[in-house]
Amino acid sequence: MDFQEIFSAIFTFDNYAQLLPLVRNSLIAGAVLGLLGGLIGMFVMMRDLAFAVHGIAELSFAGAAFALLAGANVVAGSLVGSVLAALVLGLMGIRARDRNSIIGVVMPFGLGLGILFLALYEGRAANKFGLLTGQIVSVDDVQLNLLVGCAVVVILALTAIWRPLTFASADADLAEARGVPVRGLSILFMVLLGIAVALSIQVVGALLVLALLITPAAAALKVTSAPGPAVLLSVVFACTSVVGGILLALGGRIPISPYVTTISFAIYLVCRFISSRRSARRSRSPRVAEPVPGRAVPTGS
Fold it and tell me: Where are the coiled-coil regions (predicted)?
C-alpha cells in the first residue's frame, strides 16, 4: 500500500454530506460522553486512578463480550462488568498500592474472559472489533437513550458530592478527621467511574478509553491549576476529541478510536508546550532581591 492509498483510507470525504445524518446519534452521544469524561476525568487525576480506569475497562469489555455472545444488550452487559469491577476495586483497595495490586490481578482475568466470549461468538466480525476499538455507527436510538439517561444520572450524582469529593481527593486524612465519609465517597465515586467507563467504551472501545477519561483532564491541568477553568477546559478538550474524531472517522475507512486518540494527544502536546514555555519564562525572569534587615541598601556613588 503506497502513501496515496494510506491517505485515502484515513481521509476520504466523498459523499460526506450524505453520510453525516447517519452519525447523528453518535455525535450526540459523543458530546454527552465528552461532558461526562471531562468532569469525571478531573477526579481520576486527583485520585491517581488512571490504572483503575484501564482495569475497569477490561472488565467492562468482558461484560459487553458476554452480552454479545448471549444476544443481550451490549451496553447493559458493559455496565454490569464495569460496576462489578468498580465495586471490587472500591471495597478491596483504598490505598494506591493495594488498589494497583488488585487491578493487576483482575485486569488480565477480565481481558481473558472477553477474548473467550468473542472467540465463541459466531456473528459479524465487525461487532467483535468494535468492542475493542469503537464503532462510529453503533449507537442506535435505544442505546442513545440509555447512554444519555445514565450519563445524566452520573453527572447529577457527581454534582451532588462535588465539594466533599474534592476535599477527600485532595487530602483524605484531613477530610476523614473533619468527619467526611471518605470510604463511602470512594466507593460511590468508583461506581460512577465504572458507569462512565462502560458508556465511553461504546464510542472509543475498551482499549482506548483512557483517551477520553484521562488525557483531556491531564491536558487541562498542564495549563491551569485553578479548579473552575481546569474543569471547563477538560470538558472542552474531551468534547473536541470525541466529536472531532467522529467527524473525521466519517471520511475514512478505519475505526473511530485512532482519530479520537490523535486529537486528544495533539491537545495534550499543545498544553504541555504552553506549560513548558511558561516555566522557561518564569525561570528567565530576574528575581527582586529582598532587603536584609540591618544591611544598608546601596544607592550608588
Answer: none
Q: How far from 134 is each of 97, 203, 235, 300, CA to CA, in Å?
A: 31, 5, 20, 71
Q: Taking the mean position of all CA atoms in its chain, how far away is CA 231?
A: 13
DSSP state of 285: S
Cell 476499538 belongs to 133
Radius of gyration (C-alpha) of the chain in whole angstroms:
23
**DSSP single-letter state for residue 291:** P
Rounded-to-10 torsion of CA 180, 182, 187, 192: 60
What gap in Å lies between CA 265 and CA 273, rounded to an integer? Answer: 12
* Helix ranges, 11-140 (H): 16-19, 24-46, 50-70, 74-92, 96-120, 125-133
Mean pLDDT (whole number) for 114-134: 75
pLDDT digit string, tens, across residues 175-220: 888 888 988 888 899 889 888 888 887 777 776 777 788 899 999 9
State pTM to two decimals: 0.79
Q: What's the mean pLDDT in 79-88? A: 85
Grid-cell match 476525568, residue found: 41
Does residue 71 sit in helix, strand or coil? coil
Cα separation of 151 and 34, whole Å? 10
- Has residue 101 got a pLDDT over 70? yes
Q: Can you say how many angstroms the Cα of residue 115 is from the centroid of all Cα atoms in its chain?
A: 23
Q: Is the dihedral of CA 262, 264, 267, 268 positive or negative?
A: negative
User: Which DSSP state fits 20?
Assistant: G
- Determine the residue type at 121: Y
SS3 207: coil
> 137 pLDDT exceeds 80?
no
Question: CA distances (Å), 177 to each of 70, 167, 170, 173, in order?
Answer: 48, 11, 13, 6
